[in-house]
Amino acid sequence: MLKANTAATVAALFIFGSLGLAGCNTVEGFGKDTQAAGEAIEDTAEDTKKELND
Known about the structure:
It is a single chain. This protein is an all-alpha fold. It has a domain at 23-54. The chain has 1 helix and no strands. The longest helix is centred in the middle third of the chain and has 52 residues, at 2-53. It is rod-shaped and about 75 Å long. The termini are far apart.
C-alpha cells in the first residue's frame, strides 16, 4: 500500500512540476510579445512626433 501511495505522489509531483514549467515558458513568451508590441508602439509614436515637428 505504501508503494502505491508513493508512486501516486511522485506521479502527481511530476505532472504538476511539468505544468509549472510549461506555465513559466508561456508567461515568458507572453512577456516578450508584450515587450515587442510596446516597442513597436513607441517607434510609431516617435516617427509620428518627428513628422509633426517637420
